[in-house]
Amino acid sequence: IVKNGDSPRAIGLRADMDALPVQEVNRFDYASANPGRMHACGHDGHTTMLLGAATLLAKRPDFNGTVHFIFQPGEEGGAGARKMMEDGLFERFPARAVFALHNWPALPAGQMGVRVGPIMAATFRFEIRIRGKGGHAAQPHTTLDPIPVACALVGELQTLVSRTVDPLDSAVLTVGKIESGTVENIIPDEAVIYGTCRALRMETQELLIEGLRRIGTFMAQAHRATAEVIIKPGYPPTVNHAHEARFMARIMAEAVGAANAHADVPPAMTAEDFGFMLEQVPGAYGFIGNGRDGKPGVNLHNPAYDFNDDILGPGAAFWDLLVRRWFEDDGNIRREKLP
Fold it and tell me: Which of 164, 155, 93, 123 is closest to 276 using CA atoms?
């Protein structure tokens, strides 16, 4: 916490901290020293930028308000934001608004972006367990082979996006893993499909869930098998509030220049548990460019990903500027001042 003056106004700045279960392939001196673990999403950089901002603000606390620095674990699938909120985050550290930044390799360093409304998608994971009857590979007529059912089901699931979702809406369904069988000459009893769904609107997410259950159940029945469809709740969409997103866009333009600040950056179908915080507190989530030499960088979650350390200083300076501008006029940012 950095606090100055007597204003009751407070805002929160959030950085995520966790790494990923990825084996790094980079060979530079600062590559991960932990096998099977690397910072493939740049969360270490986010933490460093926020620590830098805390240092800047503590050295020159000439603003009237309180800043809560939120260092959040468990963003990569652990719903750490929700767990912090369940532990009383905003009851103990109330905030009028909350902001977050994520490095974005698709943007060159020196550029930033934000948008009003959904900026990242809702996501959930699913599992479809197809049960048949195993037996000898030479006698398929005595079995109920679940593998052809799984193959047919994977193809049919693709129609959920192409023939169910409005073409002007956005959704992604991906099957990332199929498990079945033990050896070549035995037909197994079961095949399991694992995947994820992503959507920018909760209504679309519900449409996908209903479709998964319907297609999974009845496709299996059509093949005389049975299917259990398991939905694993994930993250809500990350939906920026209009006032806070426009404010953030204004500060980005001041920090990097109007030509380098994108006030309507395209949304991404990746997911972010900062969406939980935005359901409770107004705020905005933005991107800070991570590319090098004016070109896009290696994408997030890639084993060759490399956080661009050149953006650490500008990132910390951006947070410092955002806080000072937010608390101008005795901590009361008037909404009519923003476009």
Answer: 123
Cβ atoms of 143 and 187 closer than 8 Å = yes
Estimate the crossing angle of helix 146-157 against helix 202-222, to 10 degrees.
150
Q: Where are the beta strands (DSSP E) in the chain?
A: 2-4, 10-16, 65-72, 97-108, 112-113, 117-120, 122-131, 135-136, 171-180, 186-187, 190-199, 226-235, 238-240, 261-262, 283-291
Contact at 8 Å (CB) between 280 and 84?
no
Which of these, 97, 96, 91, 52, lies nearest to 71 by C-alpha position? 52
> What is the DSSP code (8-state) at residue 144?
B
What are the CA-CA distances from residue 26 to residues 20, 22, 32, 34, 44 (Å)?
Answer: 15, 12, 9, 13, 16
Angle at 237 between CA 291 and CA 218, to 5 degrees: 115
DSSP character at residue 235: E
DSSP type of residue 25: -
Place of tokens 């369940």: 86
What gap in Å lies between CA 18 and CA 301, rounded to an integer?
12
Number of H helices, E strands in the chain: 10, 15
Give the CA dihedral 237, 243, 249, 253, nearest 10 degrees.
-170
Average pLDDT of each block of 10 consecutive residues along the chain (339 residues)? 66 96 94 95 97 96 93 94 97 96 96 97 97 96 96 96 93 96 96 97 95 96 97 95 97 97 96 97 97 90 95 98 85 45
Residue among 71, 80, 75, 76 nearest 49 (CA): 71
What is the C-alpha to C-alpha distance for residues 312 and 46, in angstroms, rounded to an integer? 8
Q: pTM here? A: 0.88
